[in-house]
Amino acid sequence: MTETPGKGVVVDAEPLARFCADVFERAGMDRDPARTQADVLVWANLHGIDSHGALRVPKYCAWLSSGVMNPQPQLCIQDNSPATFVVDADRAAGGVAMQAATRHAIGKARSNGLAWGIVRETTHTGPMGYYAAQIASAGMLAIVASSSRPLMAYIGARKAGVATSPIAMAAPGDRSEVVMLDMATAEIAIGKILKARATGDSIPAGSALTADGNPTTNSLEAALPMPLAGARGAGLSLMLECFQGVLVDHPLLAPALRGKPVVHSQNGLAAAIDIGLFGDVAGFRKRVDELGAAIKSLPRAEGVDAIYLPGEIELNTAAERRRDGIPLPT
């Protein structure tokens, strides 16, 4: 670890993961689940998604202490068809529950061609890309998402009506690494607001409202992220609630909007599709590369140095941070 005055510290990924895992173990988690959760956070830091990285450790520890996050959950995977399953997470750490779902989805898709799994009653799930990348690296198409209580303004409303509902979609290439879209349905993720508060930065205009429903760029006043592209982001979030919690009788939005006391909880989705169902896998990977090359060869707009594919900037950041270390604020 190195320290730069006024700029925080720089630490390598493995020591950071060991540190986070040790903290979680001291907070009551078993060793393997603690390391699983730590790996999720450090992956986020490596890929430049610092809002979902080690910044979350204090909040997770507070949840472990209060019982919001169960340090000793009894995960139960129910296979209700050859292609579908439900993970009853027992309020497990989100990374632990989602990783179990991801591995199970890959296994079912290898055996049956596709898998659609829902995680019921977990906690903060972290970056969807962590799980989607694993599915794509197994040679499959991936769709991974999560949903939570109302955190984001619904279009036309002054109060929270839907969740920020992150979603990731990934496909494997041949020479290229995984092509992956990893996004929230909000103009700004809650984690990015938290990061801005920690660093004293402002947030972009039009990205959030105050608790009273007024626009703000002050991260300390920001309470409600705005939906991405207005009605599109709000509608996508609502539909993701239908595809997750509503589907398995663990809705999160409607009970909260009806006034039921809100306790932090999330649901998740992990879906995998065997590309071989549709033809030659090697040919698919080659065509993904060809598509990427065609996009990157487009004439660039004035002032643009490079055209990037979804997830490419994050992959470049990960390569840099594996080499140079992960910067952390102090």
Detailed description of the structure:
This protein is α+β, with helices and mostly antiparallel strands and 330 residues long. It has helices at 13-26, 31-46, 57-66, 94-112, 128-137, 190-199, 231-246, 253-257, 281-296, 312-324, and strands at 2-4, 8-11, 76-79, 84-88, 114-122, 140-148, 152-153, 160-162, 167-171, 179-183, 208-209, 224-225, 266-274, 326-328. A seven-stranded mixed β-sheet has the order 3-4-5-13-6-9-10, with helices on both faces. A three-stranded antiparallel β-sheet has the order 1-2-14. It has a two-stranded antiparallel sheet with strand order 7-8. A hairpin with a 6-residue loop joins strand 7 (152-153) and strand 8. The longest helix is centred in the first third of the chain and has 19 residues, at 94-112.
Written as H for each helix and E for each strand, in order along the chain, the element string is EEHHHEEHEHEEEEEHEEHHEHHE
Look at the structure and give the CATH class of one domain: Alpha Beta
Low-confidence stretches: none
Which word captures the global form?
Answer: globular
Short description:
With 330 residues, the protein is an alpha+beta fold. Helices cover 39% and strands 20% of the residues.
Provide the fold topology.
Elements: E1 2-4, E2 8-11, H1 13-26, H2 31-46, H3 57-66, E3 76-79, E4 84-88, H4 94-112, E5 114-122, H5 128-137, E6 140-148, E7 152-153, E8 160-162, E9 167-171, E10 179-183, H6 190-199, E11 208-209, E12 224-225, H7 231-246, H8 253-257, E13 266-274, H9 281-296, H10 312-324, E14 326-328
Parallel strand pairs: 4-5
Antiparallel strand pairs: 1-2, 2-14, 3-4, 5-13, 6-9, 6-13, 7-8, 9-10, 11-12
